[in-house]
Amino acid sequence: MPTYAIADLHGRFDLFTKAIAAITERGGGAVVFTGDYVDRGPESRQIIESLMAGPPPGQEWFPLKGNHEDMMVQVCRGRASVGWWMENGGAQTLLSYGHPPAGNVELSVVPREHLDWLDRLTILFRDGCRLFVHAGVDPMVALELQSEKKCLWMLYPEGFAGGHGDLHVVHGHHQFADGPKLYAGRTDLDTFAWYTGRLVIGVFEDDVPGGPVELIEIIGEPHELACQDAAES
Q1: Per-residue pLDDT for 233 more than 70?
Q2: Which of 104, 111, 185, 209 fits a disulfide with 162 by CB distance 3.0 to 4.6 angstroms?
């Protein structure tokens, strides 16, 4: 069965549901989500609830932590300033939980069990040929010694083509509307989907080393129309 990789949904539940439907139509397989389910787009809560509920028959899901999940947990548990999260799309996440559009920020609208689930998400997922992570890994540091902060926040230098040893690195975080960006040693699947409405799924075969053998393009509404549709539903 193939492995599918989905990056940076950022509250676009419409793209999430279309992606899962497309994978189901192909017979399923393993699905690795590289993080950033929340913030900026209109339906973060719906994505979290769906991921927590688990996959449909024929699929196995491996959700990883992104920097936005980490930010959400840190702020909601009083370890970082609310302003930091609000400046990075947190207001949209709170609205998806039913927070009033005006007034003081009330972090209590986020259920504790959601925060617990987000906090437990793993940073890395490895198969035989590839390493899946949200932002990237230091190619000069052993996997067991990688910095969690770097795995969640780093940006590769422009055009950097390396992976991690013999492992091809699959990640998101660094957005390119004209992506995905495919290199010999890594694949960046972040296509700015929350804004453009264009999500690209990478398809990987266990016995084929390197990058994706196929790309599946999911097209939804651009950001403004997606927000309007979510508000009316």
Answers
A1: no
A2: 185
Over residues 114-162, the pLDDT tens digits come to 999 999 999 999 998 999 999 999 999 999 999 999 999 999 999 999 9
User: Starting from the edge strand earliest in sequence, which strands make up the sheet with 214-219, in order?
Assistant: 59-63, 29-33, 3-6, 198-204, 214-219
Angle between helices 112-120 and 67-76 (to 10 degrees): 140
Query: Cis omega (within 30 of 0) on the bond before 180?
Result: yes
What residues does 31 pair with on adjacent strands? 4, 61
Q: At 62, which helix (H) or strand (E)?
A: strand 59-63
CATH topology of domain 6-232: Purple Acid Phosphatase; chain A, domain 2 (3.60.21)
Q: In whole angstroms, what is the distance from residue 119 CA to residue 122 CA?
A: 9
> Strands 29-33 and 3-6, how do they pair?
parallel
CA distance 197 to 40: 13
Q: Is 180 helix (H, G, I), strand (E, B) or coil?
A: coil
| pTM reported for the whole predicted model | 0.96
Q: Which two tokens stand for residue 77?
A: 């548990």
Cβ-proximal residues to 7 (8 Å cutoff; 6+ apart), any chain: 33, 34, 35, 36, 171, 172, 173, 188, 189, 190, 191, 193
Show the tokens assigned to 170: 């699959």
The two tokens of residue 171 are: 């990640």
Contact residues for 87 (Cβ-Cβ < 8 A; gap 6+): none
Sort 197 into a burial class: Cβ within 10 Å, 0-12 / 13-18 / 19+.
Answer: buried
Q: pLDDT digit string (tens) for 101-117?
A: 988 999 999 999 999 99
pLDDT mean over 67-95: 97
